[in-house]
Design a protein that fits this description.
The structure holds 2 protein chains of 2 kinds. Chain A is mainly beta. Chain A is 0% helix and 48% strand. Chain A is built from no helices and 11 strands. In chain A, a hairpin with a 2-residue loop joins strand 5 and strand 6. Chain A is globular. Chain B has one domain: Sandwich (Immunoglobulin-like), CATH 2.60.40.10. Chain B is built from no helices and 12 strands. In chain B, a hairpin with a 4-residue loop joins strand 8 and strand 9. The chains are: A mainly beta, B mainly beta.
Chain lengths: 114, 113
């Protein structure tokens, strides 16, 4: 069984540029999460999807961040425009609807904003 | 809301020695507790979890953790550490009916030969 796939693995951009991250969850997992992990910190939830519906986006900075999960499978997280403070690892995770605590994480995308 | 504290930022142990990583949580009701491991450049992998029942939980890779309600703790242990255990370890707490998991800041484990 394939795990959670994320791309790109690394991204370097200049500030004020847009950037997008892609996530493909484990097949059959209804719930998808995007987490932000700053250096030396644990992951912090940005947004959670149940199928295609964003059910918790309270921690998503909506002035510059957006996300979508069309058709309830793949998801894209976008930042526009990026700021220096956005440099971090962006993790995607998925879980089956029957057990929201069984979260499987992807390898993450390491973003560097210069 | 629930929260987690991992008091040790970095721990170094010798290969073959025993290990204990500390985790304290704050939550008014019975928490759901987790330990994850993250190797460099990798995502988080679930080591073990506690929902209810036996307070001593066995996980993968020879790890175990004990839930102590009186101390609000969920410490991770391993009797004999291997060099491959060097990684970052995260404790997390969740709550019934709430998918919001809160992670600690992590403890980095270094294993000396």
């Amino acid at each position: 069984e394939a795990g959670v796939v994320q791309s790109p693995r690394y991204k370097i951009i200049e500030k004020k540029q847009p950037v997008a991250f892609w996530c493909n969850p484990i097949s059959g997992h209804n719930t998808l999460y995007w987490y932000l992990q700053n250096l030396g910190q644990g992951p912090e939830l940005l947004i959670r999807y149940e199928n295609e519906e964003a059910v918790d986006d309270s921690q998503l900075p909506k002035d510059r961040f957006s996300a979508e999960r069309l058709k309830g499978v793949d998801s894209t997280l976008k930042i526009q425009p990026a700021e220096l403070g956005d440099s971090a690892v962006y993790l995607c995770a998925s879980s089956p609807g029957s057990n929201p605590y069984e979260q499987y994480f992807g390898p993450g995308t390491r973003l560097t904003v210069t | 809301a629930q929260s987690v504290t991992q008091p040790d930022i970095h721990i170094t142990v010798s290969e073959g020695a025993s290990l204990e990583l500390r985790c304290n949580y704050s939550y008014g009701a019975t928490p759901y507790l987790f330990w994850y491991v993250q190797s460099p450049g990798q995502g988080l992998q679930l080591l073990l979890k506690y929902f209810s029942g036996d307070t001593l939980v066995q996980g993968i890779k020879g790890f175990e953790a004990e839930f102590k309600r009186s101390q609000s703790s969920f410490n991770l242990r391993k009797p004999s550490v291997h060099w491959s255990d060097a990684a970052e370890y995260f404790c997390a707490v969740g709550a019934l009916g709430n998918n919001d998991m809160r992670f600690g800041a992590g403890t980095r484990l270094t294993v000396k030969p």
